[in-house]
Amino acid sequence: MHGQAFVLHEDPISANCYKIRLTAALLGLPLSRRAYDIRKGETRTPEFLARVNANGRIPVLEIAGASGIRFLPESNAACWYLASGSRLIPTDRFAQADMLRWMFFEQYNHEPNVATLRFWLAYIGEENLSEAQKGQLDAKRSAGEAALRLMDEHLAKHDWFVGQGITLADIALFAYTHVAGEGRFVLDDFPAIKRWISRIEALPGFVALN
Amino acid sequence: MHGQAFVLHEDPISANCYKIRLTAALLGLPLSRRAYDIRKGETRTPEFLARVNANGRIPVLEIAGASGIRFLPESNAACWYLASGSRLIPTDRFAQADMLRWMFFEQYNHEPNVATLRFWLAYIGEENLSEAQKGQLDAKRSAGEAALRLMDEHLAKHDWFVGQGITLADIALFAYTHVAGEGRFVLDDFPAIKRWISRIEALPGFVALN
């Protein structure tokens, strides 16, 4: 970590951005923050696209060090960079791949449903959704509940997603799961998830989303 | 790799499954194959859910070795397992995270658009889509084209997604990109992507999807 400085380009309401803050906090790494409002299009300006991320999205981790300034988009990749060589990434070959398995599951099966319904219902407002968005509400509800059910079944038998302690898989899945109620998911239906949330919130160094 | 045997649980039409076959072929690793037809629900049977993947999806990499038989879902995680310690994963800290960045981009921005339109249009048939699916065609078209454009801009300046040779980022993105025409994307609009496809197809050990 020596000689590196980190700036998180973020929207404070985004739990994808929060994953990176939580990773840094659990590892005791200093992290500066630069805020954008995605609802005002602040990550689609020409300067942002040219300098920070051509994909027009946050989070982006800016890394200043001996190799100059570099930008790393994608929340789970930024967590991987920060946690490289730490206890948050298992070294066993299968466990490492299994951790990534849950992180890809998070981006493919969980985030597009659990996070999108939170954004649509709690931040855009159901009355402001387009017809195309309204047409997806039921499918996203059911896919989000399936993702939460799969997590709950796993956590009924294991304290953590991989191995005997917290890894990036837990951080990635915690981010939008613990605020799933804002998307009108009912966490009381998933008791093992609720116990796992309490375990994470009790960790030394834990920081909250807000 | 000593003492391990690999079985890929797959649907031969799935390019997510093909990523794993291509990774194994480029590394010269033997891989057995067990086929399922996702259109007939063969990955949602009670046996499959109990033994292979509770998420009801393929691909799943079955790994038999000293630790017994283990199952690894998620295409990109299975590629990571197979390629662990090989030239397909850079060891530099930033390059490794940057490779994962493109693999998460693939699962979040590329696959749900480029792969889904291919499946809907070439395998389900536009006339058989539900109203909810038809309502998503335009959004998926435009998001898929944005993903391809971002790739094309990167490849106009770089031969490979990360560093000076092929990595798992190229394999993950190649899988659905090279058959994007089946989803009515026009690859002639993306000349740098077309040159990159030719580079991959010319690699020693390359195997085709079909």
UniProtKB/TrEMBL annotation, chains A, B:
- SUPFAM superfamilies on file: GST C-terminal domain-like, Thioredoxin-like
- Segments forming domain GST C-terminal: 92-210
Extract the InterPro entries matched here: Glutathione-S-Trfase_C-like, Glutathione-S-Trfase_C_sf, Glutathione_S-Trfase, Glutathione_S-Trfase_N, GST_C, Thioredoxin-like_sf
For this protein, the record's CDD domains field holds: GST_N_4 (cd03056)
Q: Which residues form the GST N-terminal domain?
A: 4-90
Q: Name one Pfam family in it.
A: GST_N_2
PANTHER family, alphabetized: GLUTATHIONE S-TRANSFERASE-RELATED, HYPOTHETICAL GLUTATHIONE S-TRANSFERASE LIKE PROTEIN
Q: What is this protein called?
A: Glutathione S-transferase family protein
